Amino acid sequence: MNHTLYVPVRTGDAGVLTLRTARLESGERTGLAFTSQDALARTLGPAQRWVNLAEPSLRDMLAPLGIRQLRVDPLPLPRQVKPKMIPNDLGFLPPVPVPLAAG
To answer: What residue numbers bound the domain in which 42 lies?
Structure first.
């Protein structure tokens, strides 16, 4: 039995929808799909556009791109926080990160 998946898309040039993909730590590309709108919104945000596709159809669309893996309901990655920087008055040194307080 094929289940309908919620597949994230983005609008490309001329309004064409394209599948949104991701990269694994190895650098390999992977397809993304979700079993519910809530799971998609939790991971990619409520403004993320999506289409419904059956898994075989999604895999058929990913195959010509060389994508063999599909991640269903991936968890969101923690957002990386940029350290606050202390500017310096010397033009030849980069800004210095503010040390985090222990505790």
So the answer is: 4-72
pLDDT per residue, tens digit, the chain (103 aa), is 568 999 999 998 888 999 999 998 888 999 999 999 999 999 999 999 999 999 999 999 999 999 999 999 998 766 655 555 555 565 555 555 555 554 4
Q: Does any domain span residue 85?
A: no
Domain membership flag for residue 84 = no
Instruction: Please give the model's pTM, rounded to 2 decimal places.
Output: 0.71
Q: Note the Cα 89 to chain centre separation in Å.
A: 38
Count how many Cα atoms sit within 13 Å of the Cα of residue 94 in the half-sphere of its side chain.
Answer: 5
Residue 72: which of 39, 27, 28, 44 has the closest Cα? Answer: 39
Residue 86 lies in a domain: no
Residue 97 lies in a domain: no
